[in-house]
Amino acid sequence: MVAPPQEVPELLKLDNQLCFSIYAASRAITRAYRPILEKYGLTYPQYLVLLILWETEDLTVNEIGRRLYLDSGTLTPLLKRMESTQFIERHRSANDERKVEIRLGPKGQELRRKAITIPETLIETNHLDAGEVMRTKVMVDQILTKLLECSDQDQLDPSGQ
């Protein structure tokens, strides 16, 4: 015999969870980027790497990982694929052989000139309001900052004191 479902408190309902809304929106955004980026032979994570390299050309794997919140075990295979398609170049640091530095490859440099249309295309093809998108980004960034601050504090003092 199946017990009747118990009343679920509002705070425990999936539709009331900020984490789920952000997770679902992230997946939807990634899906919306897919057809735009496929024209350039890119995946969404590869696009994020290029965005970083278009800002600052020579970066280590660790610096890219820090910006993307990815560990080197996740990032290294991604970077190897990007190197094989000439979006990036990888080389050992002259100062420290343990460090791998990343710079734009020929295709990454070429795409920088064309990429300016990617954000506009995403907004237009998905009928988004650019102002609303930017306001939402600011709010999500504020939440991320607070969560990272709390997480940093927990790492400094695991007891939470």
SSE layout and pairing:
Blueprint: H1 18-38, H2 44-55, E1 59-60, H3 61-68, H4 72-84, E2 88-92, E3 100-104, H5 106-114, H6 117-125, H7 130-156
Antiparallel strand pairs: 1-3, 2-3
What Rg, in angstroms, do the CA atoms define? 20 Å
Reported for the largest beta sheet, the result is: 3 strands, antiparallel
Range of helix content: 55-70%
Instruction: Please state the second-level CATH architecture of one domain.
Output: Orthogonal Bundle
Shape descriptor? globular
Along the chain, the helix and strand elements come as: HHEHHEEHHH
CATH class of one domain: Mainly Alpha
Give the CATH topology of one domain: Arc Repressor Mutant, subunit A
Secondary structure: number of strands = 3
Which structural class is indicated by helix and strand composition? Answer: mainly alpha
Task: Say what oligomer this is.
Answer: single chain
Question: What proportion strand?
Answer: 5-15%
Low-pLDDT segments, ≥5 res: none
Please report the distance between the alpha carbons of the first and last residues. 47 Å
On the 0 to 100 scale, the average pLDDT is 92
The strand order across the widest sheet is 1-3-2
CATH superfamily of one domain: Winged helix-like DNA-binding domain superfamily/Winged helix DNA-binding domain
Q: What's the helix count? A: 7
In words, what does this structure look like?
By secondary structure, this protein is mainly alpha-helical. It has a domain at 41-114: Winged helix-like DNA-binding domain superfamily/Winged helix DNA-binding domain (Arc Repressor Mutant, subunit A, Orthogonal Bundle). The protein contains seven helices and three strands. It has helices at 18-38, 44-55, 61-68, 72-84, 106-114, 117-125, 130-156, and strands at 59-60, 88-92, 100-104. It has a three-stranded antiparallel sheet with strand order 1-3-2. Strand 2 and strand 3 (100-104) form a beta hairpin. The protein is globular and about 65 Å long. The N and C termini lie far apart (47 Å). The relative contact order is 0.09. The mean pLDDT is 92.
